[in-house]
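Fig. S4 source data, part A: sequence.
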Amino acid sequence: MIAPLEEAGLTGAFSVHHAPRLGALDRCAHQVLYGFAWGELELRLSSFYAPETEVIADGLRTPLKDVPAATQVLIIPAQDAENPGGLNGLVWLMDRLLGPGGCPWDQAQTHSSLVRCLLEESYELAEAIETGNEPAFVEELGDVLLQPIMHGQMRARDGGWDAHFIADRVTKKLIHRHPHVFGESTAQDESAVLRQWDAIKRAEKGVETSGLLDGVPKGLPALMAAMEISKRAARVGFEWPDAEGVWQKFREEEAEFREAWAAGDKEAMEAEMGDLLFTLVNLARWAKCDPEQALRRMLTRFIERFRAMEALAGRPLDQLNSQEWDELWNAAKAQTRSSA
């Protein structure tokens, strides 16, 4: 393994890649690649190294862009002594963590084991946004950004695509789905953009006649899923003529829920509560209000006020009577408003 490096006058750290497995590339170490067809390497290497990067192909120095297709042993001398910074620096860092001498925890992760991390980081980011905490906002954005980088470089370590490939794919997708920006079509408002987006997406999937609701992720929280389903149905005309129609539907569903309640029919109560909640989601859509966000913010306010009540009570809350509860709640509400 060392002979080609010695012949090229290269010393120091190196990584060896044998076809067909191309592991994580490391700019801080010499890369030695054996037995790959150039077509298998060109896209991957060109996303990681500049075309003019000097490499050694079967003992001859040449720019990366001019590597002969029949090359059997390709050496890429170490490029960076330090982290290059920015997004490339994050990719570089992840390759170091996943590569030889890296971090055992990172190396032990799988795509499945990281699902929990993605969900946790996403909720922490949402909390930072909702609370207006700017330092936390930046930090949590970084934690979420790390997730696709890690997935990409894990797959690259195992001989597949990488984070650069992910970025290239999403860039091409966004260009294709914005023909009103990058092409010849027109879309005068948000609704037109969304209708065009849905049509392009269905065409891409090759299922022009697929159900409009087929693409709603099953794992979405119920309020978010209800809002998405409501929006999609409305886009194709399944809609009330005005907001008053939604209010009438709400009153109708409320009456049906009250009937089920009066009858003590638990199964009917659950069904009618679902109808009532979905109607509320539609009211939120007409009001241009995100129900998930509205509920999350309400819960934040409730928690703040309840904590204020605990601090103001002076004794266990379960010892309060109904009048004291009302007085304490109003005092906590005034306190949290004045400190907002």
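Fig. S4 source data, part B ends here. The two ends are 65 Å apart (CA to CA).
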